[in-house]
Structures are given as structure tokens and as C-alpha cells.
Design goal:
This protein is an alpha+beta fold. The protein is 25% helix and 33% strand. It has 7 helices and 18 strands. Strands 2-1-16-5 form a 4-stranded antiparallel beta sheet, with no helix packed on it. It is globular, with a radius of gyration of 23 Å. The model has no long low-confidence stretch (mean pLDDT 86).
């Protein structure tokens, strides 16, 4: 897969657009006449072109595992720090703080990083966990706070957490994903009635933007995932720490469950919480024998997977744009392969 400049981009008229939702959680808005590369569902599963208005639930569309590109900003340690703070950190007070088990590697990493930046560490025990605060030992500007400001996460509430839409480095994203899964992630191992082992790595957040960014980062690293939403609203009010709560926000879960994706992710992440790292290593080893299906029409390229259409719904009248891309007449939108305006 190589990048190419569009030959032309033309603004068209206002049309009745469609919202196309996929099993992976991706959503694409397209004109009814936009054409997609799909795999036939019957007979020999060859590729064919289908218009947006003829897509039906279950249609399979190629998903590019190497669609993204990376920048140069951010190191692995900075990425882990940002990811862990988005998970179990406090970034709305005057001084950044982190909550964790004093015996695990995440807290040890925070102590080391604070010393590297010239910050102190104040540890306040709270049951089995400890609350770490990082005051600056001299001067007026806390360098850890400045780091969080540089990556656009300082001062965010839980439902609004996100990273800026910038091209971070590959090392930064690997570190960030490691920090996010160490804090708000879960490694699961399951066995079916036949005793076959299945594994998954899940990340949960109440921020829909952060969930999308995590899914996109995984895709750029060649890891497929699914995005599901769990509604947790309650009609009856209850009290938490003196605050009246009417309901809970929906939880967005990014799930990596394909065996090949779990193995690939395990080879990328550097988890610092001991039991999670051991469990991920065990799960990856248990499913490492599973290979992607290989045939002339499916699984022939490890950089391509197949997503499935979930729903096709009206999106209202929108101005549409036509792209002409040569020589393949294909381009990537939201990770999915679609067709250009004119084909040879």
C-alpha cells in the first residue's frame, strides 16, 4: 500500500447522504452513489463494486491495517505518562497527581519520571492504593504540568478526555496505549466448552472521542478492534460522596479479540503492572498458534482485514465531494477502502 496525491477534488451538489455504520464501530457518511469494494457473500467470494444505497447489513468491506502514518512528536515515556494520567491521574487541580498500587510498576515509573523532571513526590496512603502528588521543587512552572499541557490533556474532565488530533510518533502511541491499558484496561482469558482458549484486551472509557482515538491508534499499528457502547443510565437518583447523581454516562469499550490481533498487540505493548503483563503474555502464547485465514480472496494479505456493514441510515442533506485518485482508483476513509469518482 502506497500513498498518492488525489488527481482532483470536486465539490458537488447537496444530496441526501447516508450514515454507514460498521461492526468495528466506525461510521462513514457518504453520498448514495459512492462506490465501495465489497466481497461477494455467495459463490466464489470475489471482489465487486457496490453503491452506498445498495449496501446491506453484513456486506464485507476491506479494512486497511496500515492506513495511518506517524509523526515525530513524543517519546515512549511521555506517551506512557500521558496514557496513565488519562486513566488514573488527576489533572484538574493545581498539581498533577496519580493514584495506584505502590507495589506495581506504574507507580514506580511515576516516581522515576518525577525525579527526572525535577519534581517531588508526596505519597498519601488511601487503603491499598497511594495518592501521588508531584509538586515542583523550585521555580513557578511545574514541568510535568507543562508536559501534560503540551499534549493537550491538562484540565480535562472524565467525559471530555482526548488527545489533540496531531501526528504523534509511533513510540508515543505504543507508550500511550500501554499506559491506558495499564490503568483502564483489562486482559481476559476465556475457554469454551471444548477447552479452547480465547483471549481479549479491552479498554474502557466514558469519553467517546478518546475511544475513537484509541481505536484509530490501534489500526495504525496494525491491530483490529471493535467499539461497543454500554448504556448505564439509571432513572432513580442516588448519592455519591455527597453529590446527587441521576445517571451514569455510557461506557465505550475498545475490544481486541482476534487471535492474530492479540498476539500483535502483545508484541507492541510494554505494560508495567505486573499481573496484567503476565496475563497478556500467557494469553498471547495460548493463541499464538492461530493463523489468519488464507485464500485467494480472503486473508491473502496480513495488512488487510474485513469489516462488516451494521446499518445504513439517512443522514440528511449534505454537500458531497468527489475524489479522483490514480492509478488504483481507491482511497482510505476512516480506515476503510472505498472507490474514487472515476475508475479506469
Amino acid at each position: 500500500m502506497v500513498s498518492a496525491q488525489p488527481v482532483s477534488i470536486t465539490s458537488g451538489e447537496v444530496e441526501e447522504a447516508l450514515d454507514i455504520r460498521f461492526v468495528s464501530g466506525r461510521v462513514v457518511q457518504a453520498a448514495p452513489g459512492q462506490e465501495w469494494v465489497t466481497q461477494r457473500r455467495k459463490g466464489r467470494q470475489a471482489w465487486e463494486w457496490k453503491r452506498s444505497d445498495t449496501l446491506v447489513p453484513g456486506d464485507r468491506i476491506p479494512l486497511a491495517l496500515t492506513a495511518g502514518r506517524f509523526g515525530e512528536q513524543g517519546s515512549s515515556d511521555e506517551g506512557y505518562f500521558v496514557g496513565a494520567m488519562l486513566g488514573d491521574g488527576g489533572m484538574t487541580s493545581c498539581t498533577p497527581e496519580f493514584h495506584g498500587d505502590p507495589a506495581d510498576g506504574a507507580v514506580s515509573f511515576m516516581r522515576t519520571l518525577a525525579a527526572k523532571y525535577g519534581c517531588g513526590v508526596r505519597e498519601i496512603p488511601s487503603g491499598r492504593i497511594v495518592r501521588l502528588r508531584f509538586p515542583y521543587l523550585s521555580g513557578r512552572r511545574n514541568p510535568l504540568t507543562q508536559c501534560l499541557r503540551r499534549f493537550g490533556v491538562w484540565g480535562q474532565g472524565c467525559a471530555e478526555k482526548h488527545l489533540p488530533d496531531e501526528l504523534f510518533s509511533r513510540d508515543f502511541w505504543i507508550g500511550c496505549l500501554s499506559g491506558l491499558i495499564d490503568t483502564d484496561g483489562h486482559v481476559r482469558e476465556r475457554r469454551n466448552p471444548r477447552g479452547t482458549v480465547h483471549g481479549s484486551v479491552e479498554y474502557a472509557t466514558v469519553s467517546p472521542v478518546l475511544a475513537r482515538q484509541v481505536a484509530d491508534a490501534l489500526l495504525r499499528l496494525g491491530v483490529t478492534s471493535t467499539h461497543r457502547v454500554i448504556e448505564r443510565r439509571s432513572e432513580s437518583a442516588h448519592w455519591v460522596n455527597g453529590y446527587r447523581v441521576m445517571g451514569r454516562r455510557p461506557t465505550h469499550i475498545i475490544d481486541v479479540s482476534r487471535a492474530t490481533a492479540v498476539v500483535r498487540l502483545a508484541n507492541l505493548l510494554h505494560l508495567r503492572i505486573g499481573y496484567k503483563a503476565i496475563r497478556l503474555e500467557d494469553v498471547a502464547h495460548a493463541v499464538s498458534h492461530v493463523e489468519a485465514a488464507r485464500s485467494d480472496m480472503h486473508g491473502y494479505d496480513e495488512s488487510v482485514a474485513l469489516d462488516r456493514v451494521k446499518t445504513v441510515e439517512p443522514a440528511g442533506r449534505k454537500r458531497v465531494f468527489s475524489l479522483d485518485v490514480g492509478p488504483a482508483s481507491l482511497f482510505i476513509v476512516n480506515g476503510l477502502v472505498t472507490g474514487a469518482s472515476r475508475r479506469s
